[in-house]
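Case 437 in the screening queue. Each case pairs one protein sequence with one candidate compound; here the compound is histidyl-adenosine monophosphate. For every case the pipeline is the same: read the inputs, emit a complex structure as tokens, and attach any notable structural observations.

Predict complex for case 437.
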Amino acid sequence: MIAKAPRGTVDLLGSEAEAWLRIQQVAIDVFSRYGYRLVKTPIFEQQQVFVRGIGQDTDVVGKEMFHVLSKNAFEKVSAGGELKSDQKLSLRPEGTAGTIRCAIEHNLIPQGGPTVKLMYAGPMFRCERPQKGRLREFNQIGIECLGAADPSTDAEIIIMLLKFYEELGLPLESTRLLLNSMGDDACRPAYRETIKQYILDHSDELCEECNHRAHTNPLRAFDCKNPECAKVMDGAPKISDALCDDCRDHYAKVKAYLDGAGVEYIEDSRLVRGLDYYTRTVFELQVIDGLGSQNAIGGGGRYDKLMEVMGGPSTPGIGFALGFERTLLALEAAGIGFELGSDTDVYIACIDDDCKACGFKIMQSLRDAKIRADMDHQGRSLKSQFKQAGKMAASYVVVVGPDELAAGEVTVRCMDTHEEERCAIDEVAELVASRMR
Ligand code: HAM
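Case 437 output:
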């Protein structure tokens, strides 16, 4: 049997693999201008990092996590044994919880110190039902800003997310920015009770899952994809009417900063996001057309209690993550493609076997000069070597033949102009470098 990639995963080939590099590069360029530095955390963590960080009653933790078992742990579990907490491992479903674990473990946030700004890029795993724009392994680029409670930070990271998409070339007119405040410990518990009561009062109009959510995590009912539930939840009391004075003031200032920067947004009191750590500001960037129901290309928010919940010092935080695969779909929908660059700059074509040793040496000298170079290793004819050079979109072909070698020279052919010039063997790299300049 020939194995296939697992359900919900994709191989990134050619221009898509290149797009991942390019998108990361644009993100690193933009985010580093705002002071963000790269961090790389493990792809799997102890389960408790996600359970405590994201919340047991979220779909992400309760239903979608992939667990990782070592051989020993597998045998222990198979025999009905219990694993110790440090043996319970899961693939990361998102990057925030692991980044906060890392910041606490390495004491990255000395109290009273400056804001810590971290960015990351890599694969995340959620066992969701695969569909367009929804994968089980997908790639995110995210940022986390730790230590800043001021509403200017909320506005700054939203502006930074938009800047990233602008520099990537995605027309912002094809997107909409949703904004909401989810309140904090002072006002959200009462609002949660209000929504719980609302769900119980409308129990016969809501799905079983929403009814269950009334008892576990009532605000999740706003996320229900069932259109009937969405209609009922549209009539629910709005969090914007339930915010305490501090949260209302924070939210008003975030909006004032965004207004001042000319950022357009839609206030959406139903935007609750799927992760439990959020307090106050939450936002999502959606593509208006072409992505179907999986139209959120990025999202994030403030999480002022997360650090403490995870055992660290009380530190406010805010961040976002954008999805690479959905970003690619958004670019495609906007008619923006990534050209696959050439495979090599220079192809070495050898007329016969006796010329190969010299060709091999020239190839190394080109690579040492930081020029991409390649040659045939399969005994192809000269004609097929030229064909291969064409396929690889080489800019130059260096022809190594017995007559030229006798004179200590080779022929360098420009594939664009078809012009040829003779060159001393040990000056090939210099000549090609000067022509490429
Ligand atoms: P999230 O909204 O769950 O937030 O994910 C961020 C982005 O990842 C989404 O907007 C989407 O583009 C992409 N994404 C999520 N799930 C999938 C999937 N199954 N397939 C393809 N793409 C997907 C977070 O993960 C938070 N950690 C963001 C954050 C950082 N909040 C604060 N700091």
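Case 437 observations:
- The chain has a mean pLDDT of 95.
- The chain has three domains: 14-181+256-333, 188-242, 346-436.
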